[in-house]
Amino acid sequence: MKTPVLFTNEKSNYHKYANVDCYDKHRNALSYVGIDRAIICHPPCRLFSRMHTFSNAEQCEKFLGYWAISKVRNVGGIVENPYPSKLFNDMKCGKPNNPDQYGGYLIKINLSDFGFPARKPTGLYICGCNYRELPGASLSFNAIEFTISNSKKKYMQELPKSKRSETPDHLIVYLLKIINVINKNKYAISTILS
Q: Is the dihedral of CA 102, 171, 62, 30 positive or negative?
């Protein structure tokens, strides 16, 4: 069965994977009603970021992030957003050593470790497997070539806005490995209950 990936963009790397079922703006993520598979969600982050005051997005867009966290808490899966995102604070997401009441926890990664050309701290909220069950990741040691901030890092070139929301292939593979663990746990629990 395919892994549902919600809130992807039309040009996302996810579309290259046969074992993924993408929900982009043409296929409304809110229409996803499945409960049998763990999901991956990439809800819009601009209203949860440090730069939210500069966003022209309507405030109702925040609902998509809240919906994604609630859905993952219900069916299992992963929500990805920049770190630190106010989404994780608003929804009171747990930590690896102190999961929330849904068994979920937030981990911090850098997208550069997965082949992204800038560091980009990222949060993954995970429900359905404990921290010790997370699979190992094959990390990228490519040099960081770009920055994403308007900081004083004059020695680094600014990453074009069109490239900032790309999900690197190495991260997609890693997220799918986590989803496999979550789905195995769901299957084991359903077998015990039946």
A: negative
| Average pLDDT value for residue range 48-65 | 80
Q: How far apart are CA 104 and CA 125, in angstroms?
A: 7
Rounded CA separation 146/144 (Å): 6
Mean per-residue pLDDT for 169-189?
92
Residue 169, judged by CB atoms within 10 A of its CB (0-12, 13-18, 19+), counts as middle
C-alpha–C-alpha distance, residues 126 and 175, integer Å: 10
Among the listed residues 27, 28, 24, the one whose alpha carbon sits nearest the alpha carbon of residue 11: 24
Separation CA 156–CA 129 (nearest Å): 38
Q: Cβ distance 140 to 134 under 8 Å? A: no
pLDDT of residue 194 exceeding 80 = no
- 179 within 8 A of 38, measured Cβ to Cβ: yes
Domains in the chain, ordered, with CATH? 3-193 (3.40.50)
Task: Spell out the residues 6+ positions from residue 192 whose beta carbon is closer than 8 angstroms to its own.
Answer: none
